[in-house]
Amino acid sequence: MWLGKATSYETKYKTRSSDNGKLPSIQELLTGWMLQAKKEEPEIANQIVKWLLEQIDCLEQNVNQAQNHIIDRYQSRLDKANQELTLDYERQRNVWEPMQNKAKTLAEEFAGLANILKEDS
Fold first, then answer.
1. pLDDT tens profile 8-67
2. How many domains does the chain have?
3. What angle do CA 97, 100, 101 make, to 5 degrees?
4. Is 30 helix (H, G, I), strand (E, B) or coil?
5. What is the pTM assigned to this prediction?
6. Which of 28, 83, 86, 111 could form a disulfide with 24 if both were Cys (CB 3.0 to 4.6 A apart)?
7. Distance between CA atoms of 67 and 73, rounded to whole angstroms?
8. How many Cα neighbours within 13 Å face the side chain of 97?
């Protein structure tokens, strides 16, 4: 045989009179719920406003990032176009400048020849 302690619980039920209990009407329940909801409206509104402000801040950050990215890409393209134009200008100048110098030299030589021809005549 087992020797040991066992705990047992006994539940006792008492009969009570139900004629003194009052069940609230649906109107009373709804009125109570509405009063409770109205008391909590400012807190609910504060939570919603806080959430909306967080969403606006997040949106603003995303818009700023997108705008900065677009501006950076645009600036990069402008810089590249400017560099290409500068290089093209330098190439063109390197081609035309010697021609211009040669034309000036030829003009001076022709002017000198014209002076020599005038003196000989």
1. 788 888 887 766 677 888 999 999 999 988 888 999 899 999 999 999 999 999 999 999
2. 1
3. 90
4. helix
5. 0.48
6. 28
7. 10
8. 6
